[in-house]
Fold this protein.
Amino acid sequence: MKRILLPTDFSDNSWNAIKYALELFKNDTCTFYMLNTYTPVVYHVEYVLVNPSQFGLADSIKKVSKRELEAFYEKIKKTFNNPNHSFECLSKFNSLIPEIKEQVKEKSIDLIVMGTKGATGAVEVLFGSNTVHVLNQVKCPVLAIPDHFSYEKPHEVLFPTDYEVAFENKHLGLPLEIAKKHTSRINVLHVSYGYDLSETQEKNKQLIEHELNETTSLFHDVSNQNVEDAINKFQTKNKVNMLIMINNKHSFFENLFFKKLINHIGFHLKIPFLVIPS
């Protein structure tokens, strides 16, 4: 059974992400945990020092949170009614990132699916503060769904890599599972600056070739382009349905991509983006 966490702020974008998850895994036996975190809008010093319940703020916000979660659950039952899927609603008095970390550990979560912006519609604010923080801080695969993206099967998957990761099942298990169930073609994109692969990179390339031998895969080499441009050009030329990357803390992706470009790609993201922690 797959365990999937669905953080929601009850925005249209988060509902869109939930719909995508339910479609992508419609033939899988899954437990979905819908999570809403809440904190009082105003934190006065006396509020922090005194028991919050004396002010009644937490209670009223909790009621709203539970009511909205229940409404989403009823909407799911009415729209999908899939016997393969079970749901649990989690209304938590906490900040989003610490609560996600706690739930990932407590529930042994396999995947987090979330939207890229929230109710405010301010992509820069929410993608910068929430989704990117989850991508960088939570040790769990995250699938980010862009606003207004209607579900389509991930037939063409783009997988950029620098071959600096010694690929293991923990990195490729979920992408392989998605590829096999949806007959996806995985396009492995290597971006270089004119240098030959090192011995380590060659070895890692052989590892990924071996791991992908049961799926349809193509290997592409692009030189003298930055990673972002290479990804965007590939997406323009090909009908890509999903972007998958490994957040490798020890390669050039940490400096070149994840610190600098993940925000930028996030702001212009037009397809689902699956990030696997290394």
Q: What stands out?
A: The chain is about 45% helix and 25% strand.
